[in-house]
Amino acid sequence: MRRGLDLWMLAAALLAAGALGFPLSAGDLPLSWFDVPAAAVYVALFAALCAWLAGGRAQGLVLGAILSVAAVLGVAVALHLLYDAGAGGQARLGFWLFVFAIWAAVWRGIAAIGSFRSLNRGRQRGVDLLVPLAFGLWLVFLWEAVTVGFGVPQVLLPTPSMIAARFAGSLDILAADFNQTFVKAVISGYIMGCGSGFLVSILVDRVPFLKRGLLPLGNLVSALPIVGIAPIMVMWFGFDWQSKAAVVVIMTFFPMLVNTVSGLAAAGALERELMRSYGAGYWQTLFKLRLPAAMPFIFNALKINSTLALIGAIVAEFFGTPIVGMGFRISTEVGRMNVDMVWAEIVMAALAGSAFYGAMALCERGVTFWHPSYRQRH
Amino acid sequence: MTPLPLQSEPTAPPEPAAGDGRRVVQARDLTLTFQTADGPVYALSNIDLDIEQGDFVSFIGPSGCGKTTLLRAIADLEHLSGGTLTVNGVSPHQARLNRDYGYVFQAPALYPWRSIERNVTLPLEIMGVPRAERRERARTYLDLVNLAGFEKKFPWQLSGGMQQRASIARALCFDPALLLMDEPFGALDEIVRDHLNEQLLQLWSKTGKTVVFVTHSIPEAVFLSTKIVVMSPRPGRIIDVIPTDFPRDRNLDMRETPAFLEVAHRVREGLRAGHSYDD
Amino acid sequence: MTTDALAAPGSRPGWLSRLFAGRGGPIAVVVLAILTLWYAGAVYLNAPGMIDAFEREKRAWSTAELIEGTWSQDRPLLPAPHQVLVEMKKTILDKPITSKRSLVFHAWVTLSSTLLGFAIGTGLGIVLAVGIVHVRTLEKSLMPWIISSQTIPILAIAPMVVVVLGAIGLRGLVPKAIISTYLCFFPVTIGMVKGLRSPDLLQMDLMRTYNASRWQTFWKLRWPSSLPFLFTSLKVAVAISLVGAIVGELPTGAQAGLGARLLAGSYYGQTIQIWSALLTAAALAAAMVGLVGLTERFVLRRMGARP
Question: Do C295 and C256 sit in the same domain of this protein?
């Protein structure tokens, strides 16, 4: 790291110092720094700290730790200004310059922590996790500050705190929707779709004729807007979860088929000849060589499908459901302009989707630990 | 330039002497042609060859001379276009189904998802050997190639030389009487290669197996072999068969002796002759 | 015992596989099989309704009549392929393009927002990827979020985006294009990050021996080696962009677009209309992916890739 003037810290110091020269909010009761002396003192201290650090006094994790504390306090002060001091709705330049000052400090802090290198794998992994986490938290604060500070109408974009409150307040509804959409439709459809795709791909692989005929079509179908069959499935299988599971089956079938077939062709020439030199039969070669070699491809399909399945089930619910389900809730609450409930449902979907994907990725790591993409990481 | 020198046994019967089991490989007038877009490629033409039990035979020649192709034909990994070939008195296809030979490739070709031990026991699993015996044999042969203690490692955690030794253990573990090796040490550096050559010789004299070995290194061929088959390209054919009569327990110092250099010289002459024929 | 030198252990190619050695034959057979299954499925699914209809009229019916009936219902559970084709001909060729009943009109509404979203999303994705490759902190903090955001069913937000933007007066093309943009910039970013990183150490070291600037390294090495990755992600992006536009049309109150046609068809039980909209969407997707594929082949061939 180059010693000398730290431009990000200098920017943070100047922004914080500059903030003190402008009013905090406009409106009927304009707010200036003189109304909130404690906050003004903190901002001044913050500016001084950043100016001191701009000389390169601290590096690496130490700098990161100092800036983390300073930023967390800064965020607390900013939230206090918004909610308690009444800057919300009509925040002015003084407030925003302070936010930008924290932003510069956060950015520098993330860079400082991100450059941390350790031979200790656990420590390195912890730091690698900390950086995006800090960045994500910062984005949530920024969202809160912008929506409250500018007084963005709730219909357009609710604040994170409203969404969190709504989420915590309607856990029973969310649980029912989760059960209907995820547990019933997604899981059953996913298992059936991936399972049948896998079995058909073994068959297709065995019959070269089918491989040449079905594979180009499978590739084509993977690019088609399959969610469009949702209204037809609703018509065939009724309003309940069965029709959503049917959509999920069709959406997950083709990625599995295409990936497994190309995975079965992935074993190398030498490895196959080895099997041949042992006089191994078809099934022995399949189970001892070709399926293990195909595992990275199969898991790729499982991961793609985990996202597709959730999308398929939610979109299919737009075409008709009983009065429960994540897609149903989203479309009806949008109609009633209850946007915070919609966002709570989206948070729910995001959590379910990431957890599903993460579970598949963990299984993948366990099964294909030997693959170069995992080996090189350490 | 004797075009096709044969073994000095004119009475060799076309039928293999299955009874005494001494003739391991026998080729008569063997031809192998690949059909390509640019017309036929004569990979092997008019090959006559006999390999006796306990022989260590090297195929040597420039790239494209068909030495690997000949080895693959013996292993039933290529199909002949003409002539006859028997392995242990039966067709190569039957010999493959009988699991008569162990094959070592240029690359280790270990399966990355199996531990070293489970890689070595792979052929045993396919042949239906019970689990206890598989582990026993893996231990024995990993010991033999000096890999004891590495059973639980995965291939990518081992160096190239260790991986190739593991693949040799894999070829040996079902105890085939014939070992086919296709430039097994070609990708390794010279120090490791010397070391493995010595180990291979010890193994050979300990077990009394028949080894067919493809190489393009003259010292390696002379050091290892009881019989050196010199080959030449376009069309792939045998230029010379050079017997050596060094004792079975050789060491690396032998490579400086006049007798060794003389054989090496003869091999080099043979290779050069094959080339001048080409020009 | 001598070897029969020519006895290949594998089976020799049969007459059928020789006849269909290429791809055309097998594809034709599979398509034919699908069509047959489709007709059979139409008979199976529509027969109960047809029998009811016959019995209501209290008239006797033969099997031939039944089969013919199942292939020509007004609102069948599964329309026969020729019914869908007739409907498509009627709505694509026979109606003037400006008519609200013309499928060409609806397809254009969907296509225009797809293409707009695709263009913006691709640009955004490339810019973001370039930033991530060159700015370490951006990579460390942003890349994990981009990857994990792929696991979120983003499409679920689509109706909300349309309705919310509609509430502040943004209607028509733009909200749908925003959804498409959002959907297609993720695959482009991830593909391009991979592509811009694809030059190996030797190639990068070569640039360093020339003392090439970042800018030069980018244009001479990183950008050309990323193009194959770019086209692969563009194919995904254009397909998902169309899906985004169609889903974005679902909650707009069924005015125009293929998604609106699907929704209207499902409200009124017009299965033939649903299927024709679906087939049009499929053809659109195939055409766009094919177009990207053609461009890819052209560009990569000019860059010396093997055909």
Answer: yes
Do A354 and C140 count as a contact with CB atoms less than 8 A apart? Answer: no
Of residues C55, C37, C48, the one with CA closest to residue C76: C48
Both tokens of residue C115? 């293409």
Structure tokens at A158: 């609710």
**Tokens at residue C85, please?**
């084709």
Structural domains counted in chain B: 2
- CA C176 to chain B, closest CA, distance in angstroms equals 46
Q: What is the pLDDT of residue C5?
A: 38
Helices C271-302 & C81-89 angle (0-180, nearest 10): 80
Count the Cβ atoms, other than its own, within 10 Å of residue A248: 30
Q: Omega into B235 within 30° of 0, i.e. cis?
A: yes
Shortest alpha-carbon distance between residue A254 and chain B (Å): 27
Name which of B45, B70, B78, B80 to mutate to probe chain C: the one with the most chain C Cβ atoms within 10 A of its Cβ: B80
* C156 and C48 co-located in one domain: no
- The model's pTM: 0.79
| Length of chain A as a residue count | 378
Using CB atoms, pick whichever of A220, A331, A358 lies closest to residue C251.
A331
For A214-239, write each residue's pLDDT tens digit: 777 877 787 778 888 888 888 888 88
Chain B residue nearest residue A280, CA to CA = B126
Low-confidence ranges of chain B (pLDDT < 70): 1-21, 275-279
Q: Is B81's CB within 8 Å of C4's CB?
A: no
A122 to chain B nearest CA, in Å? 20
Q: What letter would DSSP give residue A84?
A: T
Same domain? For B117 and B60 the reply is no
- B97 φ/ψ angles, rounded to the nearest 5 degrees: -65, -30
CATH number of the structural domain spanning residue B226:
3.40.50.300
Query: Would B2 be classed as within a structural domain?
Result: no
Count of domains forming chain C: 2
CB B50 within 8 A of CB B71: no
Print the domain residue range for B166.
110-175
With contacts defined as CB-CB under 8 Å, which chain A residues touch B112?
A: 370-371
Whether residues C152 and A231 touch (CB distance < 8 A) is answered with no
| The two structure tokens encoding residue A321 | 């459901």
Which is higher by pLDDT, A275 or A212? A275
Show residues of chain B in contact with A287, CB under 8 Å.
Answer: none
What's chain B's length in residues? 279
Asked if the structure places residue B12 within a domain, the reply is no
ipTM: 0.77
- Give residue B43's Cα distance to chain centre: 18
Asked, for residue B105, whether it belongs to a domain, the answer is: no
Q: Determine, yes or no, domain membership for B11.
A: no
Which stretches within chain A are classed as H helix?
Answer: 7-19, 37-53, 60-83, 93-114, 121-149, 160-169, 171-178, 187-206, 208-222, 230-237, 241-264, 269-277, 282-285, 291-317, 326-335, 339-367, 372-375
CB contacts of C167 in chain A (<8 Å) are 155-156, 337
Q: Do B197 and B96 belong to one domain?
A: yes
- Write down which residue in B126, B157, B175 finishes a domain: B175
Please report, to the nearest 10 degrees, the dihedral formed by the alpha carbons of residues A18, A22, A25, A31 taken in order.
110
B107–A270 C-beta distance less than 8 A:
yes
Q: List the subunits that have 3+ CB pairs under 8 angstroms with C.
A: A, B
CA distances to B259, C110, C181, C192 from C166, in Å: 95, 17, 17, 33
> Does residue C181 lie within any of the structural domains?
yes
Residues from chain B that touch C8, judged by Cβ atoms under 8 A, are 79
Domain boundary among B156, B175, B194: B175
Q: Which domain holds residue C44?
A: 18-78
